[in-house]
């Protein structure tokens, strides 16, 4: 009963076979997925994607890599979408200092505004942080109290500890399956179990078994098995713990093995 805590199921890469992708995920034991947005233009399509099947949970936000398309009025629209749609989180949002032509001040403007919304609506925030973890930590501290996840974590063990102290989880996906990812694999082995989420970031970040190919949520068990091996625990134990972490963070209802809410008739 795995939860893919970060999957862009609405992406155009899935247009040809989205229902089949969902079916393969369910067959692989991935019964729920968090589907974060990247830009205002994509919110309606993401909403429709999440209506395709049970277990698809939307988050709405403005991703830093799509900065050129963001406008201040989108922040007002985001407030309206949060009020009306009641998503499980705000995001994907954050900071990206890897791409040279993304203005840091403009990124911070949109990130800070989304942190304010997350705090106001008492929602978790899904954070993108590429070469920007320290700046993200500083922003989280400015707007505390907050909770959320830094997805596709690529920082240091010390940064992971500081995020944990702030009530944030870290998401790990395909990159941890590569044998040369030594620092990331050490973090996966050592961070507290209650601070871990599993993710695919599909269609991006394929695991080592499908290098260079389209990723999809049915690949999440490869991430599970890798991290379980690094921690020397049973995959079932890791699956239960990370699912519980996701349920707690995103306020998801518990479900049975068939995907139905526990206690439902």
From TrEMBL:
Chain sites annotated for binding a divalent metal cation 2: 128, 151
GO CC term (a single one): cytosol
Gene3D superfamilies: Metal-dependent hydrolases
Swiss-Prot/TrEMBL keywords: Hydrolase, Metal-binding
Family: Belongs to the metallo-dependent hydrolases superfamily. TatD-type hydrolase family.
Any Pfam family matching the protein: TatD_DNase
UniProt binding sites for a divalent metal cation 1: 6, 8, 92, 201
GO molecular function, one term: metal ion binding
UniProt name for this protein: TatD family deoxyribonuclease
Superkingdom of source: Bacteria
